[in-house]
């Protein structure tokens, strides 16, 4: 669109308003073919997502932890299903710290001699849970209980380290949601 000098007025070009706007835009040649091709792909992916979400809803309908985890800002049905499927029985972790370590979201720790050096996250663990946690905080920063952690860490050390810190806090809430079937700090704020 930018190459054709068209600036859209909408943020969501793939919602109902965006589709109507795309129908009105005067694309020509290769650009018209590219937009038509991408729209067909999006329709196919949308149909697949509907099928997958329906299957997940039926399989996880009675899972209390699945529903509790969705109360965290940024965690939807798919991300919650990833947490439930990949973590499995959360009681195998003695604490939330152990879950964060298993996911590779804890800082590396080296002690050469008498000096302690902390580094970036270890990234040794379940990459899918780590990705889901970081993806959940990427846009909304985890909502009210997690945002202060993100803001503090990103101000001091940068945006990506802030995301890792927020993801670690989010995974801590996921631990309690899966273990107890509710997240008390979110329930207290809602009530």
Please give a quick description of this structure.
The chain is built from 9 helices and 2 strands; from the N terminus they run αααααββαααα.
Taking all residues together, what is the mean pLDDT?
A: 88
Shape: globular
> Quaternary arrangement of the chains shown?
single chain
Number of strands: 2
Helix content: 55-70%
Largest sheet: 2 strands, antiparallel
Which structural class is indicated by helix and strand composition? mainly alpha
Note the beta-strand portion: under 5%
Characterization of this structure:
The chain has 191 residues and is mainly α. It has 2 domains: 16-59; 64-190, no CATH class. Helix content is 61%, strand content 5%. It is built from 9 helices and 2 strands. It has helices at residues 16-24, 29-59, 64-69, 77-87, 96-102, 127-138, 147-157, 159-180, 184-190; strands at 107-110, 117-121. The chain has a two-stranded antiparallel ribbon. Helix 4 (77-87) packs antiparallel against helix 6, helix 5 (96-102) crosses helix 8 and helix 6 (127-138) crosses helix 8. The chain starts with 15 loop residues before the first helix and ends with a helix. 25% of the residues are buried. The model has no long low-confidence stretch (mean pLDDT 88).
């Amino acid at each position: 669109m930018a190459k054709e000098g068209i600036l859209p007025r909408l943020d969501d070009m793939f919602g109902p308003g965006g589709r109507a706007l795309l129908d009105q835009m005067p694309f020509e040649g290769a650009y018209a073919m590219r937009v038509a091709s991408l729209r067909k792909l999006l329709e196919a992916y949308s149909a697949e997502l509907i099928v997958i979400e329906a299957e997940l809803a039926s399989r996880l309908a009675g899972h209390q932890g699945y529903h509790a985890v969705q109360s965290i800002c940024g965690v939807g049905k798919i991300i919650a299903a990833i947490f439930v499927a990949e973590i499995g029985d959360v009681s195998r972790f003695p604490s939330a710290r152990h879950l964060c370590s298993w996911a590779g979201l804890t800082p590396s720790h080296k002690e050469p001699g008498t000096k302690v050096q902390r580094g970036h996250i270890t990234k040794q663990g379940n990459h899918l849970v780590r990705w889901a946690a970081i993806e959940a905080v990427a846009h909304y920063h985890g909502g009210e209980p997690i945002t202060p952690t993100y803001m503090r860490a990103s101000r001091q050390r940068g945006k990506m380290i802030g995301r890792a810190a927020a993801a670690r806090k989010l995974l801590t809430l996921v631990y309690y949601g899966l273990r107890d079937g509710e997240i008390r700090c979110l329930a207290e704020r809602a009530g």
